Every structure is written in structure tokens, then in C-alpha cells.
Amino acid sequence: PVEKDSRRKLWLTILYLDIKVSMCTGMPPLTRPDELGGFRSMPDAPDSLQMVLFQSLPTVLSVLAQINSKKDQISYPDVLRYNAQLRELMGHAQRVCTAQLQRITVDIFLRRCLMVLHRPFALHPDGPTLFPESYWSSLECSLALLVHYRELWCSDTNMRLDLVGRAFVLDFFSATLTTCVHMLREDAPLSGAAATGCRLPPRQLILDTLRSCVDIWSGEQEKSVCWRTGYHLLKAVIALLPAVEERPSSSAKQPVSAMQQQMAMGP
């Protein structure tokens, strides 16, 4: 029985990593939804992270299967249905995951899935009016990932949470670019998010947070060619945005702290 439980935990981790890579690369996961049929029970005494992942995998896999389908594009009613399911899972995860890293890990995973789900509709030229739920959800989830980015890189240096954060660097990169795309729209009235249940901070605060997150990339650019290329790309995109009000270096963390207070990190 002990070995059986260990194998289940290992398989659950493999499925999670496979799906996580799929969301970053845009390629279909190796695992198909119908392959979860034999995975009906959890290991004995699972921790909260394993339980949430176990409950989330069927929905996340279904989303990726439809998004990557070459036959039919996912319908908007299906997008809204999956959105409700994923946000319910997010709320459940916030309640049952007591450890900080578990909460962050699951929140990044589910919000990244929401970004993938909403992307085709959120980036539509008329997204704010035709598909408001997708448009605002995409921006909200991107901002939430930026908050997690700063949480992992700017926490207690003795904990070195940035080592964990490096596993999500492509998620943070995507969130930064997605936020920039949203902010480049001159006709994006952030106040419209209230109608869809999203709580977004003022535009200036978002711009300040983007700048502080790109500053993190600046400190990493000598680590590898990928880091350096990513930094220069983000720096070029940030330069296209309206000028950001300069803040003293001692308050570099204030934009994100303020955004944590103004955004709803849960659904």
C-alpha cells in the first residue's frame, strides 16, 4: 500500500509538470483527459496541494484539449463555463492550502490556465465590448502573477523563494507581456472591470508594477542568453507604454504592495 500511494503521488506530479509545460509552450500535453480514468483515488492522507491538483487536472486538461484542437474553436459559452469551474477551484485552493508556497503554486497554475482559456477572446480587437469577461479576466490574472513574481523574488533572502520562482519564469514572462498588451490599448477603461467582478488597481499603479517587475529581469540578465533576451524584449515593450512616474528606490516594492491591497487575489 505504501508503494502504491507513492506511485500515485509521483504520477500526479508528472501530470502536473506535463500540463505546466504545455501551458508555457502552447503545445498539447502528452496526457489526454481520457487517460485520467484510472486515476480515481488519491493517495492516503494527501497534502492539500496534491488534493487540489487532483481535483483540478480534469478541468485543466479539458481546457487545453479544446484550446489546442484543430477542428473546432472553443465556444464562448464553454469558456465561461470553464472560467466558473477554475475560479471555484482557485477559491477552494486558497481555503485549503495553508502553506504560502502551496497557495502561490496552485494560484499560478490555475490563473495561467485561465489566461490560456481566455486568450483568443481577450486579445480580440473588440475584446472589452464583445468578450468583457475574457478581457478583464486575462488582465486580472496577469497582474496576479506579477504580484506572485515579486513575492517570490523580494521575500526574505534567507528563504530564497526565487529558487522556486524560477520554475515559473515563463509564466511571469507571459504575464508581463500580456499586461503590456492590455495597457497599450488606449481605449481600455480599467473601471469597466467592476462590471465583470474583477478588482483592478489604477492604471498608474499597474504601470509602476510593470516597471518594478522588469527591474527584476534586469538583475538576472547576465545569468543566461535567455534571461538577457527576455529582459531586452520586455524593456523594449515597456518603452512603448506611457511614461511611468519615477519613484524613490527605497519604495520599489510599494507598487506591488499597494496592488496586493487593491486586487482580489482570489476569485
Category from helices, strands and their pairing: mainly alpha
Count of alpha and pi helical runs = 11
Tell me how many strands there are.
Answer: 0
Which regions are unreliable across 5 or more consecutive residues at pLDDT < 50?
244-254
What's the quaternary structure here? single chain
Residues in helix, %: 55-70%
N-to-C terminal Cα separation, in Å? 37 Å
Work out the strand percent. Answer: under 5%
Q: How would a crystallographer describe the biggest sheet?
A: none
| Average predicted local confidence, pLDDT | 80
Taken from the alpha-carbon principal axes, the silhouette is globular
Order of helices and strands: HHHHHHHHHHH
Rg estimate, integer Å: 19 Å
Question: What this model shows, in words?
Answer:
This protein is mostly helical and 267 residues long. The protein contains 11 helices and no strands. The termini are far apart. About 4% of the residues have low confidence.
Brief account:
The protein is mainly alpha-helical and 267 residues long.
Topology:
Blueprint: H1 2-25, H2 48-67, H3 76-96, H4 100-122, H5 127-130, H6 132-153, H7 162-165, H8 169-183, H9 203-220, H10 225-238, H11 254-262
Helix pairs in contact: 1-2, 2-3, 2-4, 3-4, 4-6, 6-8, 6-9, 6-11, 8-9, 8-10, 9-10, 9-11
